[in-house]
Write the C-alpha cells for this entry.
Amino acid sequence: MKLGNLLKGYDCGKFADTEISGISHNASEVKKGDLFFCLRGSAFDGHDYAEVAAQNGAAAIACERSVNLECPCVTVPSARRALSEACAAFFGNPDREMKTFGITGTNGKTTTSYVLAEILREAGEIVGLIGTNCIRYCGVSKPAKLTTPDPYELYSVMRKMKDAGVTAVVMEVSAHALELDKTRATLFDVAGFTNLSRDHLDYFGDMQSYGKAKAKLFDKRASVCAAVNADDEFGRELLRSANIPVLAYGVKNPADVFGIELKMSAEGLEYVINIEDDIGEVKFALLGRFNMYNTLCAAAMAHLAGVSTEHILRGIRSLKRVDGRFNVINAARFSVIIDFAHTDDGLGNIITSVREFARKRIITVFGCGGNRDKTKRPVMGLLAASMSDLVVITSDNPRDEEPEDIISDVYAGVPENKRKSVYREPDRREAIKLAFNLAEEGDIVIVAGKGAEKYQEIKGVKYDYNDEDYIMRLLQSGEIQ
C-alpha cells in the first residue's frame, strides 16, 4: 500500500507513492518495507530508535519531530493517532463495514460485553468479541494479550472478523487504550460506560486524569451515541458533558432505562426492566447486584442500536456464564466463588453481593498486583477485613515486587481489631488451601483478583496458573475434607 494512502490527511510530499508492506512501532522488529512510527512514552522516545528502524529496512518513518535520516520521513502531530489511522487503513478500515460497540469503565466491562454479544446474536447479528478474557468470533477463540489490543493487532483482527462474516463487534475499551489513541480510527456506533472507581493510578496519577481518559470515548469523534450509568458520580458528569446523544441507565437516579424489584436466588437474579416505557422481566444466571447494572448497560446499548426489548430479554437470559466472573463451585462442605474483582470497588461489590445470600461465614482470598497502583492496597485490606469473617491475603501477579511487600501494604489497611481474623500466605495455592481448611459447613470462600487469567506473573515470567483449574484439582484430590 502506498504511504500517502496510509497517512491520508498528512503531508507526505514526494514520498506519497512510497510502497509500504507493513507497520511497526518497535524498531528492533522492523522488516524491510515497513512504516515505522516514533511513539513517545514516559520512559522512552521512539525518535531515538528511528535510525535503528531505518537500518532494519524501514521504507518510511512517521515522526513528531525531525530525525535527520535519508529514509523518507513524514511529520505528524501525534504519532499514536496516525498509527491507529494507518493500521485501520492498512487493513481496509474493516470497522466501517461492521457495527461497532465500545464499552469502558473500571469494573463490569467484560460481563457487559458478553451480555451485549448474546443480545446481538439473538437479534440476528454475527458477533465478534474483543476484551480481557479473549478475542472470539465465528468459532475462533484466542487469549487476549491486552484488554484492548494495540492498533496493528486490533485492525488485523477486525479484518479477519469481517472476512469471516462478522456483522457486529463488541469491544472492551480500556482507559489506557483511550489515552494512547489505540481506537482513534474507529467511530463506535454505540458506546457504554459502566462506572469509575480507583484503579491504574500508577499510570494516570489521579482520578481526574483517569476519568478524563475514559471520557474520550464520549466525544463525537469517538462514538455516535452512548449509554451511561446515572448512578455513578462520573457517569452523571458524562451525561452533562458528552457532546453526543446519551441514554441514562440506572436504579437509584432518574434514567431512561432502569430496573426495579430485584430478586436474587441460587438461580441468579431477576428484576423488572423499563426501557423507555417498554417493560419486561429480566432473568440472568449470574448473581450480584452489580450484575443488574451490567445487564442494564447492555440493554441500553442494544436499545440504542435498535434491538427490540424481546431480543434484549432473550439475550440476557441465554447467557449462563462468563469465565472468571462470579463463577460458583459447590464443594461438599462449602461453596467457592471465583471473581476477577481486583479493585477496592470491585472487591466491595462482590463481598456485598455474597453477603446478601450467605447463610454463614464469608472467607475472602485475594491479593494485589505488583508494579501497579499501590494506593488501593490498604483500602482493599480495610474492605476485605471489615466485610468478611476471615481473610487470607496472598499474591496476585507480584511481577517485579516481593510478594511479602505487597501483602504488607494490604495488611496496613486492616483495622487492629480485625487482625486476628486475617492470615498472610504469599503462595496463592497454599492460601486457597488454607481458606478451604478454615471453611466450615455452609461457608462461602471468595477467591478474587485473577478471574479467568491463565497465568501468574512473577519476576518477568508468566507461569501457567488458573484459579478454577487449581481449585477443581484440589477439591477432587481428596486433600480437602
Observations:
- The chain has a mean pLDDT of 95.
- The two ends are 64 Å apart (CA to CA).
- Residues 6 and 89 are 6 Å apart (CA to CA).
